[in-house]
Amino acid sequence: MKFYIKTFGCQMNVNESEIMTGLLENEGHEWTENPKNADVILINTCSVREKAENKMYGAIGSLGKSKKDGKKNVIIGVGGCSAEKEKEKILNKFSTVDFVFGTRNVTDIVDLVERAKKGKRFLDFSDKLDDFTAHLPIRPSSKHHAWITIIHGCNKYCTYCIVPYTRGLEKSRKIDDILTEAKNYSEKGYREITFLGQNVDSYGKDFGDKKPKLHLLIEETSKMDNIERIWFTTSYPTDITDKLIQTVKNVPKAAKYFHLPVQSGSDKILKKMNRKHTRKEYIEMVKKIQSEVPYVTTTSDFIVGFPGETDEDFMQTVDLVKQCRYDKINIAEYSPREGTIAEKYMEDDIPKHIKNKRFQYLMNIQKEINKEENLKYKDHILRVIQESKTKSGKFLGRTINNKVVMFDSTENLKGKFVDVYIERVSAGPLYGRIVKSEIEEDFEKEENYLKEVFGY
Fold this sequence. Notes:
The chain is of the alpha/beta class. It has helices at 11-26, 50-63, 65-68, 81-86, 88-93, 109-117, 163-167, 175-187, 214-221, 242-250, 267-272, 279-292, 311-324, 341-345, 352-374, 446-454, and strands at 2-7, 30-31, 40-45, 75-80, 99-101, 122-124, 145-152, 171-172, 192-197, 229-233, 257-259, 297-304, 328-333, 381-389, 395-398, 404-407, 417-425, 430-437. Its main location: cytoplasm.
């Protein structure tokens, strides 16, 4: 039996699709990249924004055509955050869908498919997070970079966000289990891992002492031979500790990068969003990270046009961006998400054209900052791990502080270290040419490079 998985949304969804792929292959089923050849089609959905949810409905419609066009035995399952949110609506609206499942029972995918093969149409949202362990037969989408989910759920209840309702409350995996998974990847020759969570730096707060323990995972994983870079995402500002900052600073393998979503620069709007920090506290935290960690890069998320946002509120956001000087930001125009507090109790009172105007204004400010920050890398040699080939024909790589570099290369260097001389910069990637690669005999060791560049 062949199966196909369509994945929308964040890296956690990608990781969960990798788990479902591994479980199905372990039972003898065969993955296919062509849905027309599939006997089972799984759609792993996202509900963070309305656009993502619309993509889900489009995918259900288009992928369900094979069932209507004569291949009636095709099984279609829909999971992920939108599945949690829409539940009965998906099953009732689309006769082609056989089952709908949740975010906490992806480990049950083999049994869910078997039930559907017997002709049953059903919903299943059971909680099987305890089965989410290092012993799952996962099939990573990369051969050098692995995702490791360390904490599920979210306790923050920001008024605009649906995630706590679709992912549930925070639940951390056991430290030993996570380290076992990281060790398994190290033994297979993986060079990079990313620790994942909706609030990744809340990891371990539910163990009893209410103290985050992400820094411990980074320290222990850094001792593993083949692992060269350790990333984590996504952070919540108030859960970042001094220990985490110092660990990122002092552990050479820790990526010098923090993604720090803030959403607004106005205290009034932050309060309406139910964010757990003030403008002042957030800026102080960003400045602390930038001053403590050499060559660190910071990024953030913003929502423009939140209910009640005045021009003054928006300009406070602009001022915050100018003060923090991020290397990149993600901006979204506010759209109500059904089931959230903001959707229930706040009027979406900012006109679409005002939202768009603010979006464009803030993006242009950030582009100027991006270009200015990137200029300091011109005419320097940067070390990256080469990733995939892009549509432009160039290959992409990332530095240890998450600068994206584009260059000409060959497939045999995928997953390898390459040193790239930066010839030009943009508001986005840096562009350069390879001057040396890891496969050459006189290539400088990574630890020596880090000592030279970062002072370790």
